[in-house]
Amino acid sequence: MSRIIFVPQYPTPNRYQEWWFSKLPYEFEKAGFEVLTLGMEYAEMMSCRRGDIAHFAPVRMAIEFETEQVREYSALKMNENDILFLADISFPGIFCSALYHYQPPRMFAFCHATSINILDYFEGLSWSKFPVERANSLLFEKVFVGSQYHKDKLQWSNTEVTYLPFPPFKTFKNETKIYDIVSASRPTKQKVDSELENLVEGKFGKIVRKDTYSWEEYYQFLGQSKVLLISAHEDTFGYQIVDAILNGCIPIARNSLAYPELLAREYLYNDKNELFGLLDRALWGLLPLPKLKCEKEMKNFYKNIIKTMKGN
């Protein structure tokens, strides 16, 4: 039996790092692998919390967590059939340095984002950080990414588009809607176009934003809402679109980034006039709840990754 050495991200509450921590090992075990998760005991000891930017790992604690994973990895006795799976190649990025010195025969990784994302936390360091990320990517047999948009932007030779899996949570499709237009994006320049959203508020009224501290709260908020407005300048996948549709809320997003891979053209806007027209239609009930264009790929996420790892 092959063993997967699973290297998860710091399990930040209310982000996918939290549920990938247990979901990916579970799917690997179902497929017949033995799984060793690095950092498991350390994570249980830590008080996992959000960072200064809502929903992100505190930088110091994420570094401590990944450093502990390096320590555990260095103490391993490697088997000839071992496979390593790194849940995020980019942040903090310490673990990859250990792989230059000690590595199993086969290695795979997922890349959620990199320092070349515009307006990202690390964008200012991209001149030095991205060449390191690109060099680290060459260590792996495959680097899985969440969209063709991300693959095209990275220009790495070994990427494979798998999209992302459906979140494993209870959903809330409420017939009674409390809110008209909502935003679930973190309030940064990367995720919110303030100028555009101010224009929307001038025409349609307040865009409702609500701090939520659990997946259930977040999903209930979407279930109570008619329209989710997405005005981000960067997004390598678009989980908000998935979350909105699962909870009966109509997502409207830019006609760019990875969004055209998830939504039909009638839910995408190129400018404010097109956006205003879409919002009018949605609020009057003339725009039905969309279907995800990548639904099949999301349902097959684990199967496709495992197939690649098994060499089929």
What does this structure look like?
The protein is an alpha/beta fold and 312 residues long. It has two domains: 3-163 and 296-310, Glycogen Phosphorylase B (Rossmann fold, 3-Layer(aba) Sandwich), CATH 3.40.50.2000; 179-283, Rossmann fold. Helices cover 37% and strands 14% of the residues. The protein contains twelve helices and eleven strands. It has helices at residues 16-30, 40-45, 59-74, 95-99, 126-137, 148-154, 194-204, 215-223, 239-246, 272-283, 295-299, 301-310, and strands at 3-7, 34-37, 83-86, 106-111, 142-145, 159-161, 179-183, 208-209, 225-229, 250-254, 268-269. It has a six-stranded parallel sheet. Strand 7, helix 7 (194-204) and strand 8 (208-209) form a beta-alpha-beta unit. It is elongated and about 60 Å long. The two termini are 16 Å apart.
Topology, element by element:
Layout: E1 3-7, H1 16-30, E2 34-37, H2 40-45, H3 59-74, E3 83-86, H4 95-99, E4 106-111, H5 126-137, E5 142-145, H6 148-154, E6 159-161, E7 179-183, H7 194-204, E8 208-209, H8 215-223, E9 225-229, H9 239-246, E10 250-254, E11 268-269, H10 272-283, H11 295-299, H12 301-310
Parallel strand pairs: 1-2, 1-3, 3-4, 4-5, 5-6, 7-8, 7-9, 9-10, 10-11
